[in-house]
Amino acid sequence: MFYVEYGEQQIFFDLEFRERKTVAIEVNPDATVVVKAPLGTSIEAVRAVVEKRSRWIVKNQAYFEQFLPQTPPREYVIGETHLYLGRKYQLKFVVQEKEEVKIIGGHLVVYGREQSSAYIKAALGAWYYKRALKKLDEAYKQVYPLFKSYGIGQPSVKLMRMKNRWGSCTVTDIIRLNPELIKVSMKCIEYVLIHELCHLIEKNHSRRFYELMSVIMPDWQRWKLKLEKSL
Ligand SMILES: [Zn+2]
């Protein structure tokens, strides 16, 4: 992970080199920043572009941050526990040139050159987001076939921060999932997806909706309860 200074704060960003012509900056819904640069671009050149767009980046981060769900604030300090797929992990920091995040035993280990809570927060945010993309897609592939006989379309799944919701389903059949779901168990994630997919068949929370839920996932109430208690 890299960063540039912007006034009092630091803007952390992930850098990916791609076969492309220009440098692109993306601000994810969880306020993490990804920069895509042409192969062979120097770090200095990338930094210069990011610095030039600092104002725009911070503005976009602020926009997304207003949707952040109100989960209890986590401290980005060593020993604090953080959730991943329904399990608690203790935060650990290891000094290392290569920046990465790994789960090792009961620890969530953040690697980096320098231990600062700003860096740890950014590194964890980026890691959680990447894991959310992967695991929520896995869960979707797991539950979608359960709806085979109902003749539903194949809605696309997008991640979006939502204040008090885990998921939503639009009339154009886009299922939106809260990336914070990466902190609850796979079963709870499946429950949210099944709930949203059921809405493609039954729009409202009618009796028929819950009957359908029970056909697809007989123990859905268990996972709903668990989800409500989890964060
Ligand atoms: Zn619903």
UniProtKB/TrEMBL annotation:
Gene3D superfamilies: Metalloproteases ('zincins'), catalytic domain
Pfam families listed in its UniProt record: YgjP-like
Residue ranges annotated for the YgjP-like metallopeptidase domain, each copy included: 21-229
Signal peptide coordinates: none
The protein's name: DUF45 domain-containing protein
Organism: Myroides pelagicus
Lineage, highest ranks first: Bacteria, Pseudomonadati, Bacteroidota, Flavobacteriia, Flavobacteriales
